[in-house]
């Protein structure tokens, strides 16, 4: 008969809520906001932090790098591989951006050179063909490649007979031996959206301990823990450091998942906690509503008990109503969560790892169902117990209104209101810190003017312009023709533009200073520039001159440095005329004379402090002028459009014309990585903006719920004290004293909750420290503004019921039952 009683409870709950449609609609909307937001954030946390990486036994894969993220020299990788015993496989990967030519338009793709062990440790079978065989990463072996699913579809239209055909990369044919499954992304950090893989042959670089370009991956042996692997690598690298000083410092063994997730983990956990606070606020509000409704129905419940219903039976009936509300709120919340997930992914931009895996899957639906049931119990249990905790005589004597009300009821109400304001203050403080952070980040001076500037990579690798002797004439011709386009103000080129390009570091030595030990020389970000770059980017020249077209290989070597480097190494004097070298000083070292000092600029990290940066003339850079390597086979074109002083300015419309110019010179040269600098700045701030907006929305909802909660509770409390207030007014109390009484009680409760919230916020906001900038977690200004805002909201929420109470007619109040 249990099933029949449950069905009776459900029918009774449905009829009861149907007759109180206004109450039910308000409760469902409140719960939908809390449950929907929680489910949306959980879907992001689940995909990014909880869902296993799409690799075989991914938790056993680690990365072995310098300083957790820094690349590794080939000789060190090979030495680690020979000496380590903690790993079943250890391999290396190297970034590569070849040009694809023939059989379609020229295209620059993201690719990786990998050792056979690196690719095999992923433990993912190909969708077509095979993986790399042992030995295919040795020098002299036939060139082969494996395609990513998306590239196979876009370039070859999913040709089922693709295995055995060839693809031309940088002018060299590669045999296609396989296609990886859809969504396979390896190694999932540092290099994203990889479109093909080819074997990594170290060859002559096998003894190189200076050129750090490899990312090393390894799979732990069965039974070997992360701690043991770290201890072994520490022993190995310490021994190598003694033999080769400065080459094996700060080597870290990091789980691959940690690198994939990056620094987004604390932000997502904070947002999940914030949404849990909003859900608690929603539950508190619905709990208030059920307490009020339970007080009205208290006589009904007591009479049912007197007629033979057990207290447990009545409690179950009331819990059925709250569970029905919870499930209904969950269903509505799931619909809101779908829209919320889409908004979160769009808002996160490129700042969310594994964004393509975020969605409302079965795990999220199950989570939503559990949250719905839990919230139904959470907000329904106390009101149900309270509504059935009165005896028949108490209920009949108490009536509909009392002079003072139940002390227990007051305590419960006060506790709920105080908790709402405590939670709201924590959320508002977090949002305030996020706003201060975003403002501080927005105010960072990038050192250049992004307005009207567009950058694009021009890659001549594998084309007729690739030979070193052809590059200069190609670049000069390209710049001349782009400069004549209508709407172009300036044009130049650099190896890697700030924020949108790679960042190379190079050690340097100062003439006349003692030579540092191996591995201890200072390093600078290394830029290679074409004349006119600083003017095109509006980077101010502080001292000296710009590089010129006369700064060629047969002229004295020169360099421009940034202001940070000038002040650090030549404080109180001019850096112009000083000399540095990029090789350890000896009799034949090449010295570069500093000819100019420019403003500091941002590099790859928007919020990173200023650091050393050097700019070498492109026409004097030996590798670019003499080497055929792919790493010097491209330049980044930067173009500034004419911009009216007060109007929006976008250089993107110039891109099709520039593509036509490049194609007319050589159709095998692709134009890739097109980015406006305004977009680059927006992307650089995508993650703090994501945190700001989401926390801000949550805080706004929390403030609304807390204010409405206080208003509802005070309105209900005033309605229950109608006789008391009537008596006070009949005995001569003035309306202003009634207002002060009601407002004072409400403000005392709210401010008590806010005080508790301040303590909680000071503890919990410390978890935000990792993504705050320019503000402390305990910033007194933020705490002060939030406290004043909450106090104002509480004052408004209590004043309206108090004002209504002050207008009570004493005669009507005294005649009321």
Description:
- The chain has 817 residues and is an alpha+beta fold.
- It folds into 3 domains: 2-48 and 263-442 and 686-815, no CATH class; 68-249, no CATH class; 461-668, no CATH class.
- Helix content is 49%, strand content 15%.
- The chain has 24 helices and 24 strands.
- Strands 1, 2, 3, 4, 5, 6, 7, 8, 9, 10, 11 and 12 form a 12-stranded mixed β-sheet that branches.
- The longest helix has 38 residues, at 311-348.
- It is elongated.
- The two termini are 42 Å apart.
Which tags fit this structure?
elongated; eight-stranded mixed sheet; about 800 residues; 24 helices; twelve-stranded mixed sheet
Topology:
Elements: H1 2-19, H2 21-50, E1 61-66, H3 74-83, E2 87-96, E3 99-101, E4 107-108, E5 111-114, H4 116-120, E6 128-129, E7 144-147, H5 149-156, E8 166-169, E9 172-179, E10 196-199, E11 215-220, H6 226-243, E12 251-255, H7 256-261, H8 264-296, H9 298-306, H10 311-348, H11 362-387, H12 392-398, H13 407-442, E13 453-459, H14 468-483, E14 488-494, E15 505-507, E16 509-510, E17 523-529, H15 533-537, E18 541-544, E19 558-562, H16 563-569, E20 579-581, E21 592-598, E22 613-617, H17 622-626, E23 634-641, H18 655-665, E24 671-676, H19 677-684, H20 686-720, H21 722-730, H22 735-764, H23 780-806, H24 810-815
């Amino acid at each position: 008969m249990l099933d029949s009683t449950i069905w009776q409870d459900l029918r009774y709950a449905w009829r009861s809520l149907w007759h109180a449609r206004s109450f039910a609609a308000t409760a469902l909307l409140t719960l939908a906001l809390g449950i929907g937001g929680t489910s949306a954030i959980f879907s992001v946390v689940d995909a990014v932090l909880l869902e296993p990486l799409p690799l075989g036994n991914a938790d056993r894969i680690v990365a072995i790098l310098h300083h957790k993220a820094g690349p590794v020299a080939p000789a060190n990788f090979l030495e680690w591989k020979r000496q380590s015993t903690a790993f079943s496989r250890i391999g290396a990967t190297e970034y590569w951006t070849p040009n694809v030519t023939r059989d379609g338009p020229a295209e620059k793709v993201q690719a990786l050179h990998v050792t056979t062990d690196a690719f095999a440790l992923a433990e993912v079978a190909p969708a077509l063909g095979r993986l790399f065989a042992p030995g295919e990463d040795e020098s002299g072996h036939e060139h082969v490649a494996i395609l990513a699913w998306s590239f196979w579809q876009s370039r070859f239209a999913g040709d089922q007979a693709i295995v055995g055909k060839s693809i031309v990369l940088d002018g060299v044919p590669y045999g296609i031996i396989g296609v990886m499954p859809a969504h396979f992304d390896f190694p999932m950090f540092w290099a994203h959206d990889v479109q093909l893989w080819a074997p990594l042959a170290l060859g002559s670089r096998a003894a190189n301990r200076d050129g750090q370009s490899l990312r090393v991956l390894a799979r732990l042996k069965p039974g070997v823990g992360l701690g043991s692997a770290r201890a072994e690598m520490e022993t190995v690298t310490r021994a190598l450091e003694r033999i080769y000083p400065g080459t094996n410092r700060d080597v870290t063994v990091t789980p691959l998942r940690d690198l994939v997730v990056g620094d987004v983990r604390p932000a997502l956990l904070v947002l999940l906690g914030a949404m849990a606070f909003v859900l608690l606020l929603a539950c508190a509000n619905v709990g208030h509503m059920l307490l009020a409704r339970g007080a009205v129905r208290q006589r009904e419940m007591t009479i049912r008990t007197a007629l033979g219903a057990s207290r447990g039976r009545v409690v179950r009936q009331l819990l059925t109503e709250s569970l029905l509300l919870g499930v209904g709120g969950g269903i509505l919340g799931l619909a809101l969560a779908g829209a919320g997930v889409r908004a979160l992914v769009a808002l996160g931009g490129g700042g969310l790892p594994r964004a393509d895996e975020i969605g409302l899957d079965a795990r999220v639906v199950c989570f939503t169902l559990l949250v719905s049931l839990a919230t139904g119990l959470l907000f329904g249990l106390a009101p149900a117990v309270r509504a059935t905790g009165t005896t028949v005589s108490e209920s009949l004597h108490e009536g509909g209104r009392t002079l003072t009300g139940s002390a227990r009821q007051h305590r419960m109400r006060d506790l709920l209101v105080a908790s709402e304001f405590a939670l709201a203050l924590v959320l508002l403080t977090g949002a305030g810190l996020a706003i201060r952070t975003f403002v501080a980040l927005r105010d960072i001076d990038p050192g250049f003017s992004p307005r009207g500037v567009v950058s694009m990579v021009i890659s001549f690798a594998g084309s007729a312009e690739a030979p070193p002797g052809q590059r200069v004439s190609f670049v000069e011709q390209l710049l001349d023709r782009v400069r004549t386009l209508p709407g172009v103000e300036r044009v130049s080129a650099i190896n890697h533009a700030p924020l949108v390009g790679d960042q190379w570091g190079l050690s340097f030595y100062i003439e006349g200073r003692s030579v540092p030990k191996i591995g201890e020389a200072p390093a600078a970000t290394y830029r290679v520039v074409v004349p006119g770059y600083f003017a095109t980017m509006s980077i101010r020249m502080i001292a000296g001159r710009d590089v010129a077209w006369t700064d060629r290989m047969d002229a004295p070597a020169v360099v421009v440095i940034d202001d940070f480097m000038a002040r650090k190494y030549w404080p109180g004097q001019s850096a112009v005329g000083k000399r540095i070298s990029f090789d350890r000083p000896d009799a034949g070292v090449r010295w570069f004379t500093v000819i100019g000092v420019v403003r500091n600029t941002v590099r790859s990290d928007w919020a990173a402090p200023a650091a050393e940066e050097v700019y070498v003339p492109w026409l004097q850079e030996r590798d670019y002028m003499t080497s055929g390597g792919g790493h010097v086979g491209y330049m980044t074109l930067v173009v500034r459009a004419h911009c009216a002083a007060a109007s929006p300015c976008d250089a993107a419309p110039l891109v099709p014309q520039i593509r036509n110019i490049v194609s007319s010179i050589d159709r095998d040269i692709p134009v890739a990585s097109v980015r406006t600098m305004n977009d680059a700045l927006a992307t650089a701030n995508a993650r703090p903006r994501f945190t700001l907006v989401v926390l801000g929305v949550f805080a706004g909802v929390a403030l609304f719920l807390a204010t409405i909660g206080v208003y509802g509770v005070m309105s209900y409390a005033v309605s229950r004290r109608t006789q008391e207030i009537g008596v006070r007014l009949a005995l001569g109390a003035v309306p202003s004293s009634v207002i002060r009484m009601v407002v004072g009680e409400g403000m005392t409760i709210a401010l008590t909750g806010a005080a508790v919230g301040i303590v909680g916020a000071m503890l919990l906001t410390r978890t935000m420290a990792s993504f705050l900038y320019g503000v402390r977690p305990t910033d007194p200004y933020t705490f002060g503004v939030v406290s004043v805002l909450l106090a104002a909201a509480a004052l408004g929420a209590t004043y309206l019921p108090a004002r209504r109470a002050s207008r009570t007619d004493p005669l009507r109040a005294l005649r009321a039952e």
